[in-house]
Design a protein that fits this description.
The chain is α+β, with helices and mostly antiparallel strands. It has a three-stranded antiparallel beta sheet. It is globular and about 45 Å long. The two termini are about 30 Å apart.
Length: about 120
C-alpha cells in the first residue's frame, strides 16, 4: 500500500524539480514554452500546454510579464498561463489568466469545477 504524504509535503516534492526545470530553461537561453515542449515526453501534458498557450496567445507576447506552469497529479494534467502587471507600490495585479485541465472521464461536473477553481485560487 502506498503511503500518501500530507498535502503540504506533496507540493514541496513537486516544487523542487519544477524550479530546476525552469532554471535549466533559463540557462539554455531558450524560450520557456519551447524548452518545455522540447523536453516533454508525456502526450497528455503536452496537449494541455499547447491548449493553454494557444488560447493565451503566448507566441505573440514577447516582452510582457508572463508565466507558464504545468504539472500532473493523480492522472490529471494541468497547465496555466498568466500575465501580471507589476507596481513597486502595490505589488502586482493579475491582468489575464488561462488554464487547461485534462482529467479524463468526468464523473461529477460540479465537483470537477470546484476542484479546478480551488486549484486556481490556492495554487
Amino acid at each position: 500500500m502506498r503511503r500518501l504524504l500530507p498535502r503540504h509535503r506533496r507540493h514541496h516534492k513537486q516544487f523542487r524539480p519544477r524550479m530546476f526545470y525552469g532554471r535549466t530553461g533559463n540557462l539554455s537561453q531558450s524560450r520557456p514554452l519551447d524548452f518545455r515542449l522540447n523536453h516533454c515526453d508525456n502526450p497528455r501534458l503536452r496537449d494541455v500546454i499547447i491548449a493553454v498557450t494557444d488560447r493565451f496567445n503566448w507566441k505573440a507576447r514577447r516582452k510582457q510579464a508572463i508565466g507558464l506552469a504545468a504539472g500532473f497529479e493523480k492522472g490529471s494534467y494541468v497547465a496555466a498561463c498568466v500575465e501580471v502587471i507589476t507596481d513597486p507600490k502595490t505589488g502586482f495585479t493579475i491582468k489575464e489568466f488561462h488554464m487547461a485541465y485534462e482529467c479524463g472521464a468526468i464523473l461529477n461536473p460540479t465537483n470537477l469545477r470546484a476542484q479546478v477553481e480551488g486549484s486556481i485560487f490556492k495554487g
